[in-house]
Amino acid sequence: MSTEKQKPVDHVKDFNLTVAIWKHESKEGSTYYQISPTERRYKDDQGQYHNSTSLSGTQILQSSRLQDLAYARIRELEAADYAASDPAPGQG
Fold first, then answer.
1. Quick one: 6 exposed, middle or buried, by C-beta within 10 A (0-12, 13-18, 19+)?
2. Closest CA to 12 of 53, 73, 58
3. Residue 70 neighbours by CB under 8 Å, 6+ apart
4. What is the pLDDT of residues 54-90, one digit of tens each?
5. How many CB atoms sit inside 10 A of residue 68's CB?
6. Tell me, what's the pLDDT at 5?
7. How far is CA 3 from CA 6, 10, 28, 73, in A?
8. Residue 84: its pLDDT value, please?
9. Which residues on neighbouring strands pair with residue 18, listed in sequence order?
10. Which of 7, 36, 38, 67 could serve as 20's disulfide partner, Cβ 3.0–4.6 Å?
């Protein structure tokens, strides 16, 4: 078992909001994707950057759009996984 920290396979971003896309493998060996909650990056009064999952009203709309983009990206990743696992015509 690897002790290396898993990293997202991709991100979708809009200004200071980000959704991370994660690839996982089930016990049966199939792959699936999940997203993390939308994170908002901000700078405090001391100039330090932080992440939060609290969103304002307009950021909720941004988050909704990011979820749409994440869904489309996951479909692309799934299609690529399928194409990589599908033998070429005449090969099987």
1. exposed
2. 73
3. 12, 19, 21, 35
4. 999 999 999 999 999 999 999 999 999 988 887 666 6
5. 11
6. 82
7. 9, 21, 22, 28
8. 86
9. 13, 39
10. 36
pTM, 2 dp = 0.82
pLDDT at residue 41 is higher than 90: yes
Domain boundary assignment for the chain: 10-85
- Virtual CA dihedral for 34, 50, 61, 56, nearest 10 degrees? 140
d(CA 82, CA 26): 16
Mean predicted lDDT score pLDDT of the chain: 91
Amino acid at 8: P
Given a contact cutoff of 8 angstroms between Cβ atoms, the answer to whether 22 and 78 are in contact is: no
Pick from 11, 17, 6: which is nearest to 52 by CA? Answer: 17
pLDDT for residue 71: 98
Which residues are registered as beta bridge partners of 31? 25
